[in-house]
Amino acid sequence: MSKSPVRVAVTGAAGQIGYALLFRIASGEMLGKDQPVILQLLEVPMEKAQEALKGVIMELEDCAFPLLAGIEAHSDPMTAFKDTDYALLVGARPRGPGMERADLLAANAQIFTAQGKALNAVASRNVKVLVVGNPANTNAYIAMKSAPDLPAKNFTAMLRLDHNRAASQIASKTGKAVADIQKLAVWGNHSPTMYADYRFATIGGESVKDMINDDVWNRDVFLPTVGKRGAAIIAARGVSSAASAANAAIDHMRDWALGTNGAWVTMGVPSNGEYGIPAETMFGYPVTCEGGEYKIVEGLPIDAFSQECINKTLAELEGEKDGVKHLL
Ligand code: NAD
Ligand code: LMR
Questions:
Q1: Which range marks the domain in which residue 317 is found?
Q2: Which of 104, 122, 157 is the last residue of a domain?
Q3: Core-most of 92, 131, 253, 271, by most CB within 10 Å?
Q4: What is the pLDDT of residues 109-119, one digit of tens each?
């Protein structure tokens, strides 16, 4: 018997990540090739955005995806999130010329407060929320705090692009296949302060740290390359990463929903105090997923260098949290 459709809400649906994301969700790459989906697409009410969204919908229709059981266009989160099982919050306010970080935080706080409240009011009680729009960790924190009737653990932020970037750099350094890399972790904020950590990583059972055996490369090449990859892509393309960001969003949701078979992946999730991170901080952690739930990998030793890196990314997140405190 075929499965009943699930509802997938995507915000910023007419943007560039949306364009790289929706077709893959509709073709079954996110939730499985046997799972029909109804897309509930949200864009800002402006005519230009709504027109662009119509164009994307025409293209989705023209793909005749067998798994696409319905498409809806919305300009209000209260209707876009109705009964939704999955919500990918991609749309956000980009930083404009002359805009200070505080202005950016405030503009996004408004968006994610409203969207958190709407999820709280109308989404499925089991909704899985992924925030992609930057600053992703703090936006996810705001949405979570604005949805007190939903479990906090249902709110997550995207660190998977950083995880995939780190894996790819390690594959290229070691000359091994990216698919063989296990037990990689990225700690903290989706920002250049993130700490990509290969101390526990293995390839074919062998330690990646021993294989590379170069702490200077780790500190001076690997970490800055992964941390500043987003900026390097903006410099090269003139716009921010879109296909790789959409791909990471698919990876994040697929693994959360369908499980990782014991493999580690990175998700930004609300802390319960693990590794001394204050409770509720939306922090990148290594996790495993099973039965639709993620579990933080606990008990890993943190050496002095790692603690320093974790403290730095945590301090940045605490600063962002402080910057929006009065808006919540
Ligand atoms: P984009 O500007 O091409 O598209 C964003 C879309 O969101 C626009 O169509 C806009 O109209 C819409 N939008 C804005 N506010 C909205 C709201 N309140 N409700 C619904 N829709 C809204 O941008 P993009 O390239 O698709 O990137 C989207 C976001 O993802 C940006 O914030 C970007 O910085 C972020 N990003 C995050 C990661 C990550 O790893 N977490 C990676 C890449 C990009
Ligand atoms: C990325 O990591 O590619 C993006 O978050 C960059 C950005 O600032 O949009």
A1: 159-324
A2: 157
A3: 131
A4: 999 999 999 99
